[in-house]
Each structure stands twice: as C-alpha cells, then as structure tokens.
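Progress note, sequence design subtask.
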C-alpha cells in the first residue's frame, strides 16, 4: 500500500500493477461509512489484475486509513479527490471506473465533469447524484449516527455479525460522529438533470434483484444516453460482496468488450 498526498489529505492507495506497458487502468471506488478498499481487494480486484489491467484502489476521504477531515464531504469533494489522485499517480489515459454503492455515485459525478478521462463507468447498486439522492443519503447517515449513540448497538453488532463487522462500524462511528458528512452530503453540488443526456460515456449499472434500487433501472436507461443495466437475482444491496463470482466476470466482460457496444450510438430507451 502507498500513502499519497493530494489536496491537503493523505490517501491510502493500493495499486495492483505499475501502470506501465500500455495497460488500461481500472479504478475501484468503494462505498460510504462502513466500507473501504478492502471490499474490492477481497472480491474483484485480483480478477482485474490477473486479466492484465492496472488496478487502482483507494480509501476515500474519511474512510479506512485516509485522512478524516472534520468538513468537506460533498459529492464534489469525493469526485475532486479522484481527479487529484489520478493526476498524482500519473494516470493520463481514459480509465474504467467501478463504483460500489456511494462509490458509483462518485464515479458517475466524476465522469460527468471529466468525460474525456473516462472509458466507461460500472455502477454496482448505485444511483446518480440528484437532489432526492442527497436528501435520502443525508437522512440515512444522520439516522445511523443517532442509532450508534446507543451504547448497546456495538455489542449487539459484534454478537450478531462478528468482530470484523463491529470493527467497521467503529470506524464509521468516527466518521459519522466526528465530521459534518450528513450535512455536507445534503448540501452537495448537484448536476442539472438535463446534463446527463449529454454524458458520452458507456455506463453499466448492476443491481441486486432484492434491492430497493433495482426499480430505478428503467429510469436510469432513460436518463443516460449510453447505459445498460443488469439484475442479479437472489441478492440485495450487498451483491458485490455477496456474489463476487457472479459480479466479477460480469464487470470484467464489460471492461473487455461490453462497453464498446455503446460507443458511437445512443441506446434506445425500452
């Protein structure tokens, strides 16, 4: 792992491959609160690396081993971090962005503002940054922070889900109780919805059939001009960790060939 300074923060970065030899780069962006780069390290990252891609993973601001500032958690801060990190790493060619949950929202926001630097976006259980998304996320984060004030919560989590899950929750408590993340997400810079129709980047959105987000697949295909969706049956929001043996090949096939089918032509809305 590498410690990398960018934008006044120190980021924890893991790179599988050295970025040489003309290999394409896949950047993996994790979710919010209880997540960090390890969710990729133990799922799809090795598969991408074995296939010959340069793989970049990093802990987002406030998460894992990256600096946790007290403020600055709008969606634009997270996607701005991604731009700075790619510059610091010397990644100049278009990258494939894989985002899980909140990470997919970050990836899509980055693609909207830096389309020339993105080869494709792969969203797993994610949605675009909209006003409705910002208010929902802010409410969820604030609600989680309130629940974690109860001293009975952590012992119950450890007893029910184990020490690893309890450790992740302890990390998220520091983020939720020690920063303004809930307020900052609510005040995020939200793109105008009309801007999405001009996004000239292939997008694959993967949902678990049992997830509340699965119902937005039709809407997303109508919103984004080059978008495909895929539903994984028998799984919910944690589909990436729950079935990496299904999601991994799906994402790899998209990066290899699937995204090329959406280049140069708008996908008709069903």
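Output:
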């Amino acid at each position: 792992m590498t410690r990398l300074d960018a934008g006044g923060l120190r980021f924890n970065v893991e790179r599988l491959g050295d970025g040489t030899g003309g290999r394409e780069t896949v950047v993996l962006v994790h979710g919010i609160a209880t997540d960090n780069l390890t969710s990729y390290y133990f799922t799809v990252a090795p598969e991408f690396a074995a296939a010959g891609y340069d793989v970049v993973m990093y802990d987002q601001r406030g998460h894992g081993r990256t600096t946790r500032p007290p403020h600055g958690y709008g969606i634009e801060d997270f996607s701005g971090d991604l731009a700075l990190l790619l510059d610091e790493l010397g990644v100049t060619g278009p990258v494939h962005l894989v985002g899980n949950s909140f990470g997919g929202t970050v990836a899509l926001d980055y693609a909207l503002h830096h389309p020339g630097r993105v080869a494709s976006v792969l969203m797993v259980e994610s949605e675009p940054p909209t006003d409705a998304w910002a208010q929902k996320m802010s409410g969820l984060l604030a609600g989680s922070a309130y629940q974690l004030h109860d001293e009975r919560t952590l012992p119950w989590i450890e007893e029910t889900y184990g020490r690893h899950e309890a450790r992740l929750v302890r990390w998220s408590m520091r983020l939720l109780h020690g920063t303004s993340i809930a307020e900052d997400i609510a005040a995020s810079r939200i793109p105008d919805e009309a801007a999405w129709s001009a996004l000239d980047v292939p997008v694959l959105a993967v949902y678990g059939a049992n997830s509340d987000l699965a119902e937005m697949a039709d809407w997303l295909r109508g919103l984004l001009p080059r978008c495909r969706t895929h539903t994984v049956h028998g799984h919910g929001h944690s589909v990436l960790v729950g079935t990496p043996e299904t999601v991994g090949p799906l994402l790899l096939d998209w990066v290899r060939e699937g995204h090329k089918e959406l280049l140069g032509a708008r996908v008709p809305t069903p």
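The CA atoms of residues 72 and 184 lie 7 Å apart. Work on this subtask will continue into the next period as scheduled.
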